C-alpha cells in the first residue's frame, strides 16, 4: 500500500488540512500505516499536482492561511482501482523475534538484558492496547447506530486490539521461557 491510499481514505472520511490529516494518522490510521508529518505534506503536494486532491486556502486570524484538502474524482478513481487489486500477505520482519532466537548464543548477562528489553517492549504494547481500548470506548460506545464507514473503522480497530492482545500473550510466553533458561 502506498501512503497515497491511506491519505485518500482519510480525506474521503473527512476532508482537512495537512496538520489535521497528520493528527488523524497519529490517532487512528497510524495504528496500521504510520507516516511523519513531512511525508504526509510531501505526498499531499504530489497528489495535488497529479490531480488526486484539491486544496483551498482558508484564512485564519493572526496565523498563516491553512490549506484544506479534499479528494477529486480522479483521486477516488485511483482509490477504487487500488481497492479492487488483490492483497499479498505481508512479510513479517520482527527484530525482537530474531534477538530471542539469538539468545541461545549469548551468556546470562545477555539474556538478562534481553528480558529487560522484552519487558520494555511489552510495556509499550500494553500502552498501545490501552490507547486502542480508550479510543474504542470514546469513538464506538454503541455499535448499533454506526454507518458503514464507522462500522469498517471499528472492525479495523478491533483487529488492532486483537493483535495487541495476541502480542502481549506471546511476550508473556517469551518472558516465562527466558526466565526458565
TrEMBL record:
Residues 92-179 form the Transcription regulator PadR C-terminal domain. Residues 7-79 form the Transcription regulator PadR N-terminal domain. Pfam families: PadR, Vir_act_alpha_C. It comes from the Bacteria. SUPFAM superfamilies: Winged helix' DNA-binding domain (SSF46785). The keyword RNA-binding does not apply. Keywords: DNA-binding. One of its GO terms (molecular function) is DNA binding. This is DNA-binding PadR family transcriptional regulator. It comes from Actinoplanes lutulentus.
Amino acid at each position: 500500500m502506498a501512503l497515497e491510499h491511506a491519505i485518500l481514505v482519510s480525506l474521503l472520511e473527512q476532508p482537512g488540512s495537512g496538520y489535521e490529516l497528520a493528527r488523524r494518522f497519529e490517532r487512528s490510521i497510524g495504528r496500521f500505516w504510520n507516516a511523519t508529518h513531512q511525508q504526509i505534506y510531501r505526498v499531499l503536494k504530489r497528489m495535488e499536482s497529479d490531480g488526486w486532491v484539491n486544496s483551498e486556502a482558508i484564512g485564519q486570524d493572526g496565523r498563516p492561511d491553512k490549506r484544506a484538502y479534499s479528494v477529486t474524482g480522479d483521486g477516488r478513481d485511483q482509490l477504487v482501482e487500488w481497492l479492487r487489486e488483490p492483497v499479498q500477505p505481508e512479510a513479517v520482519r520482527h527484530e525482537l523475534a530474531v534477538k530471542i532466537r539469538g539468545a541461545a548464543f549469548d551468556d546470562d548477562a545477555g539474556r538478562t538484558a534481553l528480558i529487560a528489553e522484552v519487558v520494555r517492549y511489552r510495556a509499550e504494547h500494553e500502552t498501545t492496547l490501552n490507547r486502542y481500548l480508550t479510543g474504542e470506548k470514546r469513538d464506538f460506545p454503541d455499535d448499533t447506530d454506526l454507518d458503514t464507514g464507522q462500522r469498517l473503522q471499528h472492525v479495523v480497530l478491533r483487529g488492532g486490539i486483537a493483535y495487541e492482545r495476541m502480542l502481549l500473550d506471546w511476550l508473556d510466553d517469551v518472558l516465562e521461557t527466558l526466565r526458565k533458561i
